[in-house]
Amino acid sequence: MKKKEWEGTTYGNAWMHKWLIRLLRFTDVRILYAFTSVFVIPVCLLINPSAGIIYRFFRERMGFGRLKSALKTYQNHCLFGQVVIDRFAMYAGKKFRIEIEGLEYYQKLTSGKESFIQLSSHMGNYEIAGYTLMHDKKALNALVFFGEKASVMSNRARLFSGTNIKMIPIRPDMGHLFEIDQALQRGEIVSMPADRIFGSQKKMQISFLGQVADFPYGPFSIATMRGLPVLAVHVMKLKCRTYKIYATPLPYDKEAPRQEQIKELAGKYVTELERMLSHYPTQWYNYFEFWGN
Predict the structure, then answer these.
(1) b/e map of 160-197 (b: 16 or more CB within 10 Å)?
(2) Range name among 6-15, 68-77, 257-266 with the lowest pLDDT average
(3) Does pLDDT of 228 surpass 90?
(4) Which pTM does this prediction carry?
(5) Residue 135 — pLDDT band, cuts 50, 70, 90?
(6) Residue 69 has pLDDT above 60, yes or no
(7) Is the pLDDT of residue 3 over 50?
(8) Taken in order 267, 216, 234, 176, is the CA torsion positive or negative?
(9) Which residue has the higher pLDDT, 193 or 173?
């Protein structure tokens, strides 16, 4: 199968999103969890090519047997449905219990004058990090997909209003690079995904779970250009209403030649992805041929 481009949009239209938020204001999320698991997910597994992609992920990359891979494929789709529901539950005003690993180091960085980079990935529920790691010491600039649904963007803007969190849309004309540069000059935080190629098509090939995969060059280049501290931030679902944030520093040799810094930082990031997947294999949500054919 040919490797797909990242579409990056949330399923559904504005009407669906509006009524889902209204429903979640007075409905327990577990009711919608059960509905999607029993009625929606089995149908999706039959008609959606993501089922085969994730099955191969478990079979070939994680090394699971056929039966276990099939079970994990179902669990993966159920968890993804729950993550989407949780996102809209937050828009509806519901709260989640959050555990944080690495908070002291994160607070040390936010207390300093220097800007820093947060690298995310498409596993777990990273959006919760933005609503949880709020503080008044540094503004956080989060890269978001330019083509995301207007209803999702408006709900994000509403939750971020009155906070120091800003959104930088990833634009086809690369205009987001100017906004990133301005934010870093102001000593702010920039958060960006580092597991999908976006904007610039420049990429790196790195061994990931036993096979070479493409990773974007930009996030690692931006960090090393200024010699900035870098964190990998992942938000993993533990229970129905509980998440755990992992804020993991990614040190690299800032005295090394620039290309060596980029290579080392990218390697540290991929190692952290592998660590997260060893604990949470069913929370990997890259539904395209990540490793190519």
Answers:
(1) beeeebbbbebeeeeebbebbeebbeeebbbbbbbbbb
(2) 6-15
(3) yes
(4) 0.88
(5) low
(6) yes
(7) no
(8) positive
(9) 193
CA pair distance 207, 210, nearest whole angstrom = 6
Percent of the chain, pLDDT > 90? 57
Cα separation, 279 vs 260, whole angstroms: 29
Which residue is it, tokens 């008044």? 136
Q: What is the pLDDT of residue 5?
A: 43
Q: What is the mean pLDDT of the chain?
A: 85
User: What contacts 288, CB < 8 A, 6 or more positions away?
Assistant: 3, 4, 6, 53
Count of CB atoms within 10 A of residue 220's CB?
Answer: 26
**What's the per-residue H, E or C state across the chain?**
CCCCCCCCCCCCCHHHHHHHHHHHCCCCHHHHHHHHHHHHHHHHHHHCCHHHHHHHHHHHHCCCCHHHHHHHHHHHHHHHHHHHHHHHHHHCCCCCEEEEECHHHHHHHHHCCCCEEEEECCECCCHHHHHHCCCCCCCEEEEEECCCCHHHHHHHHHHHCCCCEEEEEECCCCCHHHHHHHHHHCCCEEEEECCCCCCCCCEEEEEECCEEEEEECHHHHHHHHCCCCEEEEEEEEEECCEEEEEEEECCCCCCCCHHHHHHHHHHHHHHHHHHHHHHCHHHECCCCCCCCC
- Identify the sign of the CA torsion 125, 131, 132, 134: positive
Which residue from 197, 192, 11 is spatially nearest to 87, judged by alpha carbons?
11
All structural domains of the chain with their residue ranges: 14-91, 98-280
